[in-house]
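Shipment paperwork, digital attachment
Item: protein structure file
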Amino acid sequence: MRWLIWVLILAAAAVLLALGTTLNTGNVAVLLPPWRVDVSLNFAVLLLLLAFVVFYLVLRGLSLLLGMPQAAAEFRARRRMRLAAQALHNGMFDYFGGRFRRAERAAQRAAEFTDFAPAALMTAAQSAQQLQAYDRRDAYLEQLPQPARDAGALLKAQWQLDAKQPREALAQLRSLPAGVQRRTHALRIELQAARKVGDHAAVLRLARTLLKHGALHPAAAQAMLHTAATGLLRQAGDDPQALRTTWHRLTAQERTDPTLVIAAARGFAAAGEVGEARQLLIDALSRPHAEPGLFMPSLRAMLTGIDAGFVAQTEQWLGRWPQEAQAYFTAGAACAEMQLWGKAQQHLQKAIQSCSDDERRLRGQIHAALAQLLEGIEREDQAQRHWREAAMDLSALDLPGKAGLN
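Attachment content:
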């Protein structure tokens, strides 16, 4: 359809041009004394058009002729760029294909072109690193232009980390500008180095940052956070103030982790802050879906200085976990600490009855606790019976056929 429109337009133009030339009867007189040239107006217009075309062609030819050196230089530059791009492509392809010698040679050729020099030099440096040619590797990094030095420094930090030099890697990262240090790759390198040197505070900070930005798998981040928090609590030792500071540096979610709660409670207990340690465990047991078997063994070791309020709390736990041996064991131990011998004996006997067949160790411990209680109230015969039961339960755990019960 388009060609038909063009045909119509050209036909109309031809008709208009024919009419214009037919109806135009003017002449043009050119006086060049002693000559006079008379031509029609149509022919004069045609001559002017032809002269313009010839003049344009001459100027165009002169422009092309004078511009040939520059055009040749541009052609050679484009050809060099194309060859350099091909060399860089081959270098990176060979590097990822494991042909490091060929990759290094191709990257060297690509580095001759300024625009490709940064990527080519880093590819050559990585290839030399794989070939363990460390002198050549460092020489390539030294040739990097200034804007690419930060990327080279990150590469060097990664190599130092791979060479089991985490402290050198950390020093390399800390020498970089603040903006580069906040890059995801830099944070990952710093996280790995901090883990290797045991800098738990840095691991905690970096893992949280990477998890927040989605740069770390949640499961891996949680494992790192858990290990780092545990390490910080252990580093605090028996300094209660350091323990409090470390504990409050953890997030609310981290402070609900059973392992961290138990580690903090044991730390406070070792520091002499038994009441504070006990309160951490009580708060943990007050949460929904709390597992008494995780917290109550540690809690029973921290009964010094309890009062009637704690005993009342254990009674509430019995209502919450009516079939839980750990709850009855803790209630009995609390009553014994408060010298409520009758209730203590009652709870401990109930604890023995609540033990399953897989809880022989716990049952043996309860028998031993009940035996001690009975000795304290001078019931030697009953105490001896429970000592025997405790010995049977605990010794059975060490038999080859009972290893799975431990």
